Amino acid sequence: MTKTLRSFPIDAVRQQFPALKRTYQGKSAVYLDGPGGSQVVKSSMDAIYAYMANGGANLHGSFPSSRETEATIAEARESVAQLFGAKSNEVVFGANMTTITFAIARALGRQWQAGDELVISELDHRANVDPWLSIAEDRGMTVRWLRVHPDSLTLELEDLDDIITPRTKLVAVGLASNAVGTINDVPTIASKAREVGAIMAVDAVHATPHFFVDRDQLGADLLLCSAYKFFGPHIGIAVIREELFESLLPYKLAPAPHYLPDKLETGTQNHEGIAGIKPAVQFIACLGQGETLREQFRSGFELIESYENALAEKMRNALQAIPEVTLYQAAPEVPKTPTIAFRIAGISPQEVCQRMADDHAVFVADGDFYAMTLADKLGINQDGGWIRAGLAPYNTEEEIDRFIQGIQEIVHTLR
């Protein structure tokens, strides 16, 4: 672990994040709230400012600033396409992942009818649940659930053949749990969906910042993520397989484009935010090596993944050594993101987070994090949910030590 930590260019990484200079209560701020949104790389901020300072414009104009806006959007699409192994005309931008998913659900629902079936997951963020539940209710569809085992915190896939049937129109599963970090076996689920001709919708919002995501390797027809989770601005992203995208009938204004990918992008987009996507993606690539951008992404993510997992291992080991702490995580052999959910006996999650911020300038979050179904099933929603600490490549071993010290001090006051 020490070798892994030492080989990571942490100083060079931290220099690219202005927010890390912040102090709170006389101490440097420690951001362990990455699962709720990462800090933004400076190159992304610079691109947003440059776009606005140079004169923004709407699309399809016969003047330079309009053409520049179109070029900015095209470059952002290509960057996202390269990131996931897709085509640029399969990339859609929107207000956020939730809004885009509702729009896609409504478009798909126009082709569904009573008696058709949807499959959703108990482990998921509700953004990959409620849009599908809503359209199922509207159309009189049957909903089937992939259950999560409350002890293993993994999806139960033994009955997959009974849950995904010839009547299944769509299967929606998260690639990784934003609450407890479990990485799901999406390729196995997608393979079964493909057998019955169902659409595979994958929520990759939480996964994208932490490891290399290949759309085709997953078997995803619809891949969803958000740039603000991987060092960029608040922009939602959908990657829709071209054949599926062509068949979509989105709700839109009459004069709006009918071609890909614009037909799903209703209204004027956040052009300045879109300008910040390419630099955020390039930050990841710059950490890697290789002749192609995809190779750079892969090796960059391998470096990020090994570094974050080394820090997470130290954090988990320290928390496990404290009797008052209950960790919510899958078994060691189950792959996980560096996202750690826990509770401390005798104190509410909110109070822990408040004391960590006020006494140690360590920012961790509390609640159910929209993984409401899982929190309800574990019986913790009625008293504050989890405390969640999540790592990013700009976090340091010293920051983890401060986190551990803070938790230990809180526990000591309870004894």
Automatic annotation (TrEMBL):
<dbReference type="GO" id="GO:0003824">
    <property type="term" value="F:catalytic activity"/>
</dbReference>
<feature type="domain" description="Aminotransferase class V">
    <location>
        <begin position="30"/>
        <end position="403"/>
    </location>
</feature>
<dbReference type="InterPro" id="IPR011340">
    <property type="entry name" value="Cys_dSase-rel"/>
</dbReference>
<dbReference type="InterPro" id="IPR000192">
    <property type="entry name" value="Aminotrans_V_dom"/>
</dbReference>
<dbReference type="InterPro" id="IPR015424">
    <property type="entry name" value="PyrdxlP-dep_Trfase"/>
</dbReference>
<dbReference type="InterPro" id="IPR015421">
    <property type="entry name" value="PyrdxlP-dep_Trfase_major"/>
</dbReference>
<protein>
    <submittedName>
        <fullName>Cysteine desulfurase-like protein</fullName>
    </submittedName>
</protein>
<dbReference type="InterPro" id="IPR015422">
    <property type="entry name" value="PyrdxlP-dep_Trfase_small"/>
</dbReference>
<dbReference type="Pfam" id="PF00266">
    <property type="entry name" value="Aminotran_5"/>
</dbReference>
